[in-house]
Design brief:
Blueprint (H helix, E strand, L loop, with lengths): L4 H15 L4 E7 H4 L9 E7 L4 H6 L1 H8 L2 E7 L4 E9 L4 E9 L11 E5 L3 H8 L9 H21 L2 H24 L9 H4 L1 H7 L8 H19 L8 H18 L1
Parallel strand pairs: 2-5
Antiparallel strand pairs: 1-2, 1-6, 3-4, 4-5
Helix pairs in contact: 6-7, 6-10, 6-11, 7-10, 10-11
């Protein structure tokens, strides 16, 4: 792998220490490193594969284990992203963001993309990947359509009340859950919020600038309208059951709120 020096040194120091634990079946790496496009700002996404019988014990010891593998500065579990098996860490100095995801061997093959295997004690990781192809995540367009206009109306109510921080939060939510993934889908890449959108879909990223705003009610209103317009454009032609009444009423309500701002 062609890695930045900090990442290369971290792996060279850490992987041999991890290999000393006989309960670990192997270690793989995901993210931009597995995709072959890391830079000095990249995280290290490690998948720590554990023998099924030892998994519960290893899970209880995760932070202590990581502290023995690397110079741990801070770490916490990943419930905030719906992944309790994950430990998010900073190691160093120099500081490096490293995610350690602990999985059972029987769960290793369940994935949306192929990781790169760092070491594989008995060839079991390679066998699991070969037997079970990755299942890329797909944007559920019906799930989005069922919710989008409700979110627009919610943003409009907060705009009308003058809750600008909440309104700005709604716009962030729409970019992360809807517009960014739609742009990625149109560009033929995996939907990951707005991650790497500037390089994966530069035209879409430029268009998304219309959904940004400062702490200003008029700017926020225009940004919500822009989000609605982009959703219409980027979801056009999708095979979904549309909610035209919700769209009409939510947009009408938003325009009324904007008009009331004067």
């Amino acid at each position: 792998m062609d890695l930045p020096s900090l990442h290369r040194q971290f792996l060279a120091d850490t992987l041999p220490r991890m290999r000393q634990d006989p309960r670990l079946v192997g270690v793989a790496i995901g993210g931009s490193i597995a995709e072959g496009r890391p830079d000095r700002y990249s995280d290290v996404d490690l998948i720590v594969v554990v023998d099924d019988d030892a998994y519960d014990a290893v899970l209880r010891e995760r932070l202590a284990l990581i502290g023995g593998w690397a110079p741990l500065v801070a770490g916490f579990t990943g419930e905030h992203v719906g992944e309790p098996r994950l430990i998010v860490t900073l190691v160093g100095p120099p500081l490096l963001h490293v995610d350690f995801k602990f999985v059972r061997l029987t769960d290793f093959a369940e994935r949306t993309e192929d990781p790169a295997i760092c070491w594989d004690r008995d060839g079991l990781l390679a066998a699991a990947l070969a037997q079970h192809p990755a299942a890329p995540s797909e944007l559920d367009l019906q799930w989005v359509e069922d919710r989008f206009w409700v979110w627009v109306h919610y943003g409009a109510t907060k705009l009308g009340r003058g809750e600008l921080f909440e309104t700005i939060g709604v716009l962030t939510h729409l970019r992360d859950l809807v517009l960014g993934p739609l742009a990625a889908r149109r560009a033929g890449t995996q939907p990951r919020g707005v991650r790497r959108l500037e390089t994966a879909a530069p035209d879409a990223a430029h268009a998304l600038r219309a959904t940004l705003c400062g702490y200003d009610r008029h700017e926020a209103g225009r940004a919500l309208l822009a989000a609605a317009d982009l959703y219409r454009q980027w979801s056009a032609g999708a095979s979904v059951e549309r909610r035209p009444d919700a769209e009409k009423l939510a947009v009408h309500y938003l325009r009324q709120v904007i008009d009331d701002l004067g």
